[in-house]
Design brief:
By secondary structure, this protein is of the alpha+beta class. It has helices at about 15-30, 50-60, 100-115, 150-160, and strands at about 10-15, 35-45, 65-70, 80, 90-95, 125-135, 135-145. The strands form 2 sheets. It has a 4-stranded mixed beta sheet, covered by helices on one side. Strands 1-4-3 form a 3-stranded antiparallel beta sheet, with no helix packed on it.
């Protein structure tokens, strides 16, 4: 019989007062005000494997991208930094659609992400949507949360990846 492997954890930290407040609102409010849907366009061709590797390098470099949040059955909520996590990038090809159809699909995608929210216990910063809108034109949607990352920091990570 093989024993289950324990997850590799680099560190465990308590939440700051601000993070505790954001978690409280996330858990109790019908609308999660801390959710950020970071989006940007890329003009040119993208090698999907290189794009994924660039993101994965950022995941290795920045602990916060490998961080999950846990609170159930604990006296106080904690941030858990994992040694390894994998980025998940979903590629969609909408290049044959009309501009109007793509606009509607994009808004529906954002609305769906907003409704699903963030799963803090399972890779909250590691889900990315990459959409081919037209030849040599992509749009990226990256759900983040203020509990882990602010707009300024997410912008720095995007610059690093691109």
């Amino acid at each position: 019989m093989k024993l289950a492997e324990k997850p590799s954890i680099s560190a465990i930290y308590p939440l700051t007062f601000m993070q505790q407040g954001l978690l409280f609102h996330h858990l109790t409010s019908p609308v999660d005000q801390g959710l950020l849907l970071v989006q940007f366009d890329i003009e040119g061709t993208i090698d999907f494997e290189c794009f994924k590797k660039a993101w994965q390098l950022s995941v290795l470099r920045h602990d916060i991208l490998r961080t999950t949040v846990h609170w159930e059955n604990l006296e106080k909520a904690v941030l858990v930094v994992h040694q390894k996590k994998e980025i998940k990038i979903h590629l969609s090809d909408w290049s044959l659609n009309s501009l109007e159809e793509n606009t509607k699909k994009w808004e529906a995608l954002k609305s769906d992400m907003h409704q699903r929210g963030v799963n803090f216990k399972d890779d909250p910063l590691l889900h990315i949507e990459l959409v081919l809108l037209a030849p040599n034109r992509y749009r990226v949607l990256w759900p983040c949360h203020h509990l882990l990352l602010d707009g300024w920091s997410s912008n720095n990570i995007i610059r690093e990846v691109v």
